[in-house]
Amino acid sequence: MVRPDGTVLHEERHPTLAARGPEAVTENILEIAAGLAARAENPIAVGIAVPGVIDEENGVAVWSSNVGFRDVPLRKLLTDRLGLPAALGHDVRVGGLAEARLGAGRGQRYVLFVAIGTGIAAALVVDGKTYGGAHGAAGELGHIVVRPGGTPCPCGARGCLEAVTSARSIGRRYAEISGNPEATAFDVVGRLDQDPAARQVWQEAVDALADGLLTAQALYDVDVLVLGGGLAEAGEALLEPLRGELEKRLTFHRMPRIVKAELGDTAGCKGAALLALDHLEKA
Questions:
Q1: pTM for this one?
Q2: Which residue among 74, 96, 244, 282 sits deepest, i.e. has the most Cβ atoms within 10 Å of its Cβ?
Q3: Could you tell me the fold of the domain covering 107-261?
């Protein structure tokens, strides 16, 4: 439960349990939302964010591999269950919305939020508004090809940024070099001071990320670039070399400020609330 100023009044966490199937997940979401609405003194709107391809205008989760959604009219289902106006958004875009308005990008007009975890995605926020694209698929920064003919990506291409720099890809690359099949990106960060192989994998990832962000800055020319997701928890071990590598690559483009996200894993919830409030203003 979130006030219009972004203050969180009450918070709950529930397992998704996606293996139960999309219908069960949807019903669980509706039950949790109804429970939160019942706790509120005067609920005015509800916001929800999900991963995948989202039709925000019509409130439909078009496709989400994580939870099995395909053409699920979540906004209508929420409004029918709760009797409240509802808004549906993409998880990374609403996270970017929250970081731009309430977090590390506040006070700036042009913000690019980049979430780096098991995958990589971005959200462009201009004057506090996100851009979803013609088909709800804008911001797939992880699928810019930075290493043509390189590592296969689950999307079907080769050499995508996500196939080199996501936490999953860093862990897999280090496992190949170190011979430890259980290795993770967390292990790489923890061994940078003592293991040349860890430093090699990390530098490869930073170089690829700088290449991807060079393209992003050429396209968007933002004031500040906010890095979130699990990999950003590496802090300056990531940010310092990344700033240096991006600056080396820039020619006439302006260097953006590169900062770590401030809101952590609450950004999505806060962003969903902001989206719901924006939806009210439009209505």
A1: 0.93
A2: 96
A3: Nucleotidyltransferase; domain 5 (3.30.420)
Q: Do domains 18-94+265-282 and 107-261 have the same CATH topology?
A: yes
Q: What is the pLDDT of residues 149-207, one digit of tens each?
A: 999 998 899 999 999 999 999 999 999 999 999 999 999 999 999 999 999 999 999 99
18-94+265-282 belongs to which homologous superfamily?
ATPase, nucleotide binding domain (3.30.420.40)
Closest CA to 74 of 272, 274, 281: 272
Integer Cα distance of 61 and 200 in angstroms: 40
Per-residue tokens: 173:
């690359």
Instruction: Compute the Cα dihedral for 11, 61, 88, 138 and give only its sign.
Output: positive
221 Ramachandran zone, left/alpha/beta (phi>0; psi -120 to 50): left
